[in-house]
Amino acid sequence: MNTPTRIDQALKFAIASTEAETAPPLLAEAIRYSVFPGGARIRPRLCLAVASACGDDRPMLTDAAAASIELLHCASLAHDDLPCFDDAATRRGLPSVHKKYGEALAVLAGDALIVSAFEILAKASLAKPSRLPSLMMIVGQASGMPSGIAAGQGWESETKIDLEAYHQAKTGSLFAGATMAGAAAAGADFLQWREFGQRIGSAYQAADDIKDVVSPPDEIGKPVGQDAAHHRPSIVEDLGVEGAVDRLKDLIAGALAAIPDCPGKDPLRELIVAETKRFVPKGLSTQAA
Amino acid sequence: MNTPTRIDQALKFAIASTEAETAPPLLAEAIRYSVFPGGARIRPRLCLAVASACGDDRPMLTDAAAASIELLHCASLAHDDLPCFDDAATRRGLPSVHKKYGEALAVLAGDALIVSAFEILAKASLAKPSRLPSLMMIVGQASGMPSGIAAGQGWESETKIDLEAYHQAKTGSLFAGATMAGAAAAGADFLQWREFGQRIGSAYQAADDIKDVVSPPDEIGKPVGQDAAHHRPSIVEDLGVEGAVDRLKDLIAGALAAIPDCPGKDPLRELIVAETKRFVPKGLSTQAA
After folding, report:
1. What local confidence, expressed as pLDDT, does residue B260 receive?
2. What is the pLDDT of residues A191-200, one digit of tens each?
3. ipTM score assigned to the predicted complex
4. Are the C-beta atoms of A80 and A98 separated by less than 8 Å?
């Protein structure tokens, strides 16, 4: 089964588990809407790629790990778009969750997705729970406090921002979670995989900052100029577009250099080279490739 | 160690894990504020009581289970008080989380508490993960969709409410989670404990509906008359105060009758009789006791 199909099936299984005849129908709809149709699914792709490079000896657990990471990402988007955060009206080219279902259901959809991210790990571990505690710790660290996505969003409420901690928590944490969860699902030494994930995350964040300035809104499916509008730190503000693209190239090279030794190191490297090309906005792709 | 101390220590350990020098300070404060000072801690008390009745052979795991249930409860309160839900300015006699820290940090505090509720189960299971999948499924079912607290809050966004599903999800689910988690932490057959928890939850909900009508605000630490103000279904609206108190007595008797056979059945029964006396507003206590 190819990677997009594996991810899609794992997410559909997770979402189906949140639905039942006795469930409130609008919230069930809002949850599904938060997850489908998705974006590039870049974090679960990364998770699967690392698991494959490490042998992927428990594919069901790998699928659950990848879906867990993506559900946490979808939850953070539903909350991050709320009026009290970014107040974004669109996401992935469609109305954001609260624009379509109201704020209450957007909050609850995020809550239920966080719960679901842990539930699917448990379901995939019923027979063999030995890898479950590590997976939960990885996923928890990537999403909660003191250094996960919630921490990253939390920095935006501070008057004095620790930039390093902010970027690492807001973006790096879930990428590091994706690589570590992939390794942990395959029974590998997952701590070795943290730095690679963090570096991929930094590259992705740089690419996102650049896109926020140079892309037409219909290409990225959400409002542009949000970093400036919300006074958020941005690599483009610091280095200019050209400097930011140079930095992005360095970050991608650094990430490739951080891939730990593993049975499938070469194919993983090739995959990452191909995947990171997606990071770069169309008009700038030749410069950074 | 007595029950309140066990719960307090387990919660302090959980909250300390969300704090670090690199964490955003206001969010860290908002998380602590969401959990301390607490209310009656009735759900974790129930969890510990059931675990004790079942032998409590892994007290560290029991403590984590009890804290997990309470963290999920605190998360739901932080979100339920938000302007898009109940818009409550006070809770436990103090400003609600969003009144003190703003909406963004109240949303994130809830999110981080949900994550933490699962993380502490993982931490307490690192050496022996055999009971972890069950505990996670119990806690997930109590808090997410299709039938946990999030589902219960979700019903409040529907025009046509399934009253049975609403009450069971909004209140019953976490009480059932508390009894089942206590049993599962002690290695007992936890499914046997669902009905007892649900019945205790129904009694608690009835008591809460009554308090919402008859109590002075300084006694319950939050605004009264909220059910009517938000057009929420209430047992008092259906049966009147006297009828509701009669119903409460029946519900408590039904809960006592649903305690499964276990080594500590008699002391548990006595404890529940004593605890449920707290459910009843002061002026009405002799009627329902």
Report:
1. 97
2. 999 999 999 9
3. 0.93
4. no
Distance, in Å, from the CA atom of B235 to the CA atom of B246, rounded to the nearest integer, reads 11
The pLDDT score that the predictor gives to residue B56 is 97
Would the pLDDT of B238 be above 70?
yes
Q: Provide the residue count of chain A.
A: 289
Q: pLDDT digit string (tens) for B34-51?
A: 999 998 899 999 999 999
C-beta separation of B190 from B219 below 8 A: no
Cβ within 8 Å, pair A105-B25: no
Cα–Cα separations (whole angstroms), residue B239 to B148, B213, B242 = 26, 13, 7
Q: How far does A67 lie from chain B, in Å, by closest CA?
A: 16
Closest listed residue to residue A45, CA positions, set A174, A169, A219, A210:
A174
Contacts of B108 in chain A (CB under 8 A): 79, 150, 153-154, 157
What is the three-class DSSP state of B90?
Answer: strand
Q: Contact A154/B126, CB-based, under 8 Å?
A: no
- Concatenating the DSSP letter of every residue in chain A gives --HHHHHHHHHHHHHHTT--TTS-HHHHHHHHHHHSS-S--HHHHHHHHHHHHTT-S-HHHHHHHHHHHHHHHHHHHHHHTSTTTT--SEETTEE-HHHHH-HHHHHHHHHHHHHHHHHHHHHTTSS-GGGHHHHHHHHHHHHSTTTSHHHHHHHTT-SS--HHHHHIIIIIHHHHHHHHHHHHHTTS-GGGGHHHHHHHHHHHHHHHHHHHHHS-HHHHTS-SSHHHHTT---HHHHHHHHHHHHHHHHHHHHHHHTPPP-TTHHHHHHHHHHHHGGGS-GGGHHHH-
Judge whether residue A287 has pLDDT over 60. Answer: no
pTM here is 0.94
Which of A103, A140, A146 lies closest to B84 in CB terms?
Answer: A103
From chain B, the residues in CB contact with A187 under 8 A are: none
Do A154 and B116 lie within an 8 Å CB cutoff?
A: no
CA distance B182 to B49: 8
